[in-house]
Write a structure and sequence with these properties.
CATH superfamily: Lipopolysaccharide (LPS) transport protein A like domain
Oligomer: single chain
Strand content: over 45%
Number of domains: 1
Number of helices: 2
CATH topology: lipopolysaccharide transport protein A fold
Largest sheet: 10 strands, antiparallel
Shape: rod-shaped
Order of helices and strands: HHEEEEEEEEEE
Helix content: 10-25%
Distance between the termini: 124 Å
């Protein structure tokens, strides 16, 4: 008989616990059922790091000015100093010399040290000289330009084809060279 009473008490307690759980889940816990579509989230994140009509200007210790503009820039999330640029135009205004103009389809600008990599259809114009190529490493810290890949250097008298053209911005010294010793720079006279 005592076992029956204990069984009834356990049964009543279990029923009471089940009723409390049901009441708690129905009336007290509100679940947020708002769903964010993955496409919406991606587009918001992706578009937030793009910048239209980018322009950066800086001066070095000697007073030379570097101006770079692009139709679009995209900030690298892993390094916010890096900005990937499209349709670039740059101008280097030198104190003791003529300006240097640079254009390219793409680039990578480091806002921390102002170094810029120009790529695809790179064109440099300086005085009566034009240098074309596919890759240009420009550094204010090193005061240098290094053009590589399909380099063609043209002035009023000659057309030169080489692996690389390097220019010191301070001294204006220019080196035109091939990477392999057995290959020669191709020089063609215009006259």
């Amino acid at each position: 008989m005592i076992e029956r009473h204990i069984g009834k008490i356990i049964f009543i307690i279990l029923c009471f616990i089940v009723v409390l759980i049901v009441i708690n889940s129905k009336f007290f816990e509100k679940k947020d059922t708002t769903l964010i579509k993955p496409q919406e989230l991606e587009s918001e994140v992706y578009s937030s790091n793009k910048i239209k009509d980018v322009k950066y200007t800086t001066k070095d210790a000697d007073g030379n000015e570097y101006i770079i503009t692009a139709t679009e820039g995209e900030i690298d999330y892993s390094n916010t100093n890096i900005i990937y640029l499209t349709n670039i135009k740059a101008k280097i205004k030198l104190i003791d010399s003529e300006d240097i103009s640079i254009t390219s389809d793409y680039g990578k600008y480091d806002s921390g040290n102002f170094d810029t990599i120009f790529s695809k259809n790179v064109i440099i114009n300086y005085l009566n000289n034009e240098i074309t190529g596919e890759y240009l490493d420009f550094s204010l810290e090193r005061n240098s330009l290094l053009m590589t890949k399909k380099v063609v250097y043209t002035n009023l008298e000659n057309i030169l084809k080489a692996d690389a053209v390097e220019m010191n911005l301070k001294t204006k010294d220019t080196k035109i060279f091939m990477y392999e010793n057995q290959k020669k720079v191709n020089i063609k006279s215009i006259n």
